Amino acid sequence: MIVQAPFPCIEKIRADIYHAVWRWHFYAGLLVLPFMITLSLSGGMYLFRTEIDNWYHADLKRVAVAGSVTVPPTAMVAAALEAVPGRAIQFIQPSAPGLTAEITVATDQGRVAVYVNPYNAAVQGILADRGTIMWTIRKLHSLEYFGKYAPYLIEIAAGWSILLVGTGVWLWWPRAQKGGIITVRSNPRRRVFWRDLHAVTGIFVAIFLLFLAVSGMPWSRVWGAKFNELANGHNYGYPDGLMINVPMSGHKLEDMSTTSWSLMQAMVPESAAGGMQPITLDQAVDKLDRLGLHVGYTVALPDSNEGVYTGSVYPDDLSQQRVVHLDQYTGTPLLDLSYTDYGVIAKWIEWGVNTHIGQTFGLINKIVLLAACVAIVVLALSAAIMWWKRRPSGSLGVPPMPARKAALRGLLAILGIGGLIFPLVGASLMVMIALDTLYVRLISSRISTAV
């Protein structure tokens, strides 16, 4: 007598769900793999941006320490303007002994960064503004070099990475197999080796990939920009309840200099012009020093009669983040904003961004994320090799459709919820569904023709 397996329908349903998840895990990987490799390589280097910049641009950024006394900021700015005639718009003080000051000068040909020895005001060198190797890596990381619309792909890649993690964990989940859970079987010549390497690497790096995708979302062009406006006072940029009793200009802080996510929408106040003599940069720096800004802060210089001196600093220690606007005539602080003034959402976002770029936990933060970046590259390469070994000759090798379409519809419904939260991801999902439908019809047509 033949004994049938109990609940055969349940086994078929499980197989259908498995095929549905596998199919969309494949599509997610197909979309995300190139971005994962590019973002991991550039992101891994950017973690050590200060160390790499100070090494690569040592001729510009490093000088011999000559005591504890430096020349006044105005002397450094004067030296910079003598080397590059124009208008000084920003002064960045050295963040440590033995480093140069950086003065940004606006010229008819564009902005230029002039590096000045703080001990004797000698000009060390000149570079295009944001022309360091790490600014190049940062722009590569955000895909700015690939056209106007390429940065929008970051949001799509991040959203599909979340899908990739979710489906990957489901596929990895132990189902009585003897290997490929935390161990790798066979050797590189066999597909099972690459399958196991992919699965084991994936489960260990999943939480980091998920964190990097989610924490990177606030910088995206569509969802991130709209969420920023919502989280930061409906486009005013300051936390609700913060009293601002000074005139505000029409300029945003991000238009003046690099700022934190929470202050991208922040409006800059105005000085009360009244025929007074403006204070000097030296006096502004002295005032900011006495207010206790963290060393290495940036000073944006006034650009009009109503402009202000803006001191800003975003060090590794989040509690030391600070922006202070000074009246250019009296030196009076018009607005003094620190991390403690941020709202709850902004604080969590800033913590995520700070950790994402390797600052929150010091060197261990950088090492752990560098290891995660290396693992993500391994994950991507092993997926490509595994697919190449599995795919039939002359075929894309898409995993089979589930026998029951209900399993696929259920998965797509879950994905649709994510698409509603992240609009660009939702749009790309619709495109992929259309392409998948077209692919199925083409395969069916080929089979019918062959018969």
TrEMBL record:
Domain spans labelled PepSY: 77-126
Keyword entries, A-Z: Membrane, Transmembrane, Transmembrane helix
InterPro entries linked: PepSY, PepSY-ass_TM
Transmembrane segments annotated in the record for this chain: 24-48, 149-173, 193-214, 367-388, 408-435
Superkingdom field: Bacteria
Protein name, UniProt field: PepSY domain-containing protein
